[in-house]
Every structure is written in C-alpha cells, then in structure tokens.
Amino acid sequence: MKLRFSTVALALLTQAALLSAPPALAQNAEAQAASAATQKEPSKVHQALAWSQDRLAQLDANITALEKDASRLRDEARTKADAALADLRKQRDAYRRRAQDAAVNAKDWSDAQIAEARQALDNDWATFQAARDKYLEESKASTATQRAVLEAELNAQQKALAGLRADAAKLAADQRAAIEGRIAALNADVEETKARVSKASAEVWETTKKSYGEAQRLFSETYASIRQSIDEAKK
To answer: Which regions form coiled coils (predicted)?
Structure first.
C-alpha cells in the first residue's frame, strides 16, 4: 500500500513539474525575444534615419548658397527672393522637426510606421528641391549660382561619406575592407559629378542638371545600402 502511495505521489509530482514547465519556458522565450528586439532597435532606427540627418545638412547647404545669391538682388527682385527663401527655411525646418520626431520615437514604431516616416521625409525633400528650382528659375540665377548650389550639396554628401568611413573603421578588419571599398567608390562618383558640374558651360547646363539628378538618385540608394551593411556588420 505504501509502495502504491509513493508511486501515485511521484506521478503527481512529475505531472506538476511538467505543467509548470511551459510558463517558465514561455517567460524565457519572451525575455529572449525582448532582448533580441532591444538589440535590433538601434540598427533599425539608424538605417531608417541616418540619411535624413545627412539630407538635412544638404538643405542647410542649399539655403546658405541661395542666401549668398540673394544678396546681389535689389528692390522688387530682392523682396521676391527673400519671400522665397523664407518659404525654403520653413520647409527645411519642417523637415528637421519630422526627422527629430522620428529619431525620438522610431524605437517604438512598427516597420510600417518607420516606412511611412521615411516616405514623408522623402516627400518633404522633393518639395524643397522643387521650390529651390523654382527660385533659381524665377530669380534668373546665373549658371555660376546654380553650380554653387549643386556643389554645396555634393560637399555635404562627402561629409556624409566621412561619417560612413568613421563608422566602418569600427568594424572588424574582415568586415571593414569591402565596405570601405564601396565608400571609396561612391566618393569617387561624387568627385566625378563635381568635376562635371564645375566644367559645365551654360550651353550644356540643362543636360548637366539631368545627369546630376540621376547621380543623386544613385547616391541615395548606394548610401542607404552601405549604411545597412555597416549596421548589419555590427550585430
């Protein structure tokens, strides 16, 4: 009888242990998932927002170049230029606020929300560029002024690449070499674009601007790809 009782007791204890195991395992799984999410957050946010900060530097460079150009204007032309510049500053400030809001809150956002924020920033960027081009056209800006605006953007891009190089330098040697090669190649592309812009005459300026636009698109895509590679290598 005692043997039977001990057997039953052992069976009950074993069953209790089995029943208690799943919650413990679930808690452990939740902890691991939370830890993994925490580790991924900086990378996800960095990939989504790093380029928006570098673009902000380009917006500032644009406005600085246009302010210099506006100083040559007088009377009604100056009044119109000042109004256009005020509008560009508002657009730049709106872009900054959106980027800052994303930087603060993106760690709590879903991938869909981050994608939406990035699209909104892209739209703000396109709106600014359209307004800038309108200003250049209406103010009858010289080729030299237009060249100065594009060169200011290209200089800002090279500063962004310097930031990429600094981040890549922190990686292990076996990861760093390929990424540094891509950065060097992209910087060479920027230098080539700068050379075309600086040498373009008034006669071929429109063609130069079109090729510049394509170069900008390729730069953005390649920059984002390199940034993603750096962030993934840090994991």
So the answer is: 49-105, 147-203
